[in-house]
Amino acid sequence: MFFNSKFARIPSALMVLGVLAVGCGDDDDDKVTPKPDGGTLLDASLGDAGGGDAGGGGGGTAAPAPLTPYTGTLVPILATDTSAPIAVPHTLELLNPKTGKPYSPAVTAMTTAVTGTVTFNAPADPIYIWIKGVGADTYDTVIANASRLNGDKLLRISSSGTLSLANMTGGYTNKPDRAAVAGIVYWSPGGVRKGAIGCAKIFIDGKTANDTDQDQLYNAASGLPTTIDKQSQTLKAGRYYIANMTVGQHSLRASLDNGATFLGTAPSTFLVPFPRSEASSTTKAVLVQASIDVDVPANPTPATCVDPA
């Protein structure tokens, strides 16, 4: 599937999909100041409390002080660098990582046309970034646990054209009360992402087997999810896909020996904040991106790990 002509700078490679979102307007008091590099820097209100969780357009928790700059570039979902940014501006809004709801007042920014860059003030890590889809071309994405420290400043978003295709290749049906999750098993020595880990299996919420209830899958060479009988572990690209994950807190662990031992010292935890039924995009889809960072000195991908022909 491809973006239409106004997204001509987006590569034509197939892109993965997903699920989730929330509706919330921008706060009129926010001020976006142009930057010399063409991006935008949001001057958002500071504060500690707001009398309850944000959401639904009123009340809520203020973003905690201090806020410091975070810079990223909007790119297609399979991008590994900024060589082909998404040229059409997209609006970003920060979510509270504890509640999954927008701050009040809203903390928002917009990516720059052509370069896809954006700079905004954000609370301390982890940062939850909601990228709002544009028309029928892209759909909403929530980047969970974004970090200033890991060196990954790519803000990835998917094409709406892959939704039905991924359902077919993955052999699942989207459930309105669930959300899709996509991620990569990263080799991250010292917390900095250096590459992917291949031939790994993912274990969800302490389970000891593949989670069929939440439609746990892995991505094929196309970047799209495939059925578990065709692929039961990550390729060298390290990608996995969970088509129907329940809303709430979850944990993920990666293993190279079928769950006998796990990579890293602790599970990767993240929040799925909303189901498909609450998505703001017209396609009722949002992709939650939740990756696993493995902090070990050397990439543990087995020497025998070879992608299928």
Short description:
With 309 residues, the protein is mainly β. Helices cover 3% and strands 31% of the residues. The radius of gyration is 19 Å and the shape is globular.
Radius of gyration: 19 Å
> What assembly state would you assign to the polypeptide chains in this entry?
single chain
Largest sheet: 11 strands, mixed
Average pLDDT reading: 83
Short descriptors:
mainly beta, globular, disordered N terminus, single chain
Break the fold down into its secondary structure elements and pairings:
Elements: E1 31-34, E2 40-43, E3 68-76, E4 91-95, E5 108-110, E6 117-122, E7 127-131, E8 140-146, E9 154-157, H1 163-170, E10 178-187, E11 195-196, E12 201-204, E13 216-219, E14 225-226, E15 239-246, E16 248-255, E17 268-272, E18 286-289, E19 292-294
Parallel strand pairs: 3-9, 8-18, 10-18, 10-19
Antiparallel strand pairs: 1-2, 3-6, 4-5, 4-7, 7-8, 10-11, 10-15, 12-16, 13-14, 13-15, 16-17
How would you describe the overall organization of this protein?
- With 309 residues, the chain is mainly β.
- A hairpin with a 7-residue loop joins strand 10 and strand 11.
- Strands 4, 5, 7, 8, 10, 11, 13, 14, 15, 18 and 19 form an eleven-stranded mixed sheet that branches. A three-stranded mixed sheet has the order 6-3-9, with no helix packed on it. A three-stranded antiparallel sheet has the order 12-16-17, with no helix packed on it.
- Helices cover 3% and strands 31% of the residues.
- The two termini are 23 Å apart.
- The longest helix has 8 residues, at 163-170.
- It has one helix at residues 163-170, and strands at 31-34, 40-43, 68-76, 91-95, 108-110, 117-122, 127-131, 140-146, 154-157, 178-187, 195-196, 201-204, 216-219, 225-226, 239-246, 248-255, 268-272, 286-289, 292-294.
- The protein contains one helix and 19 strands.
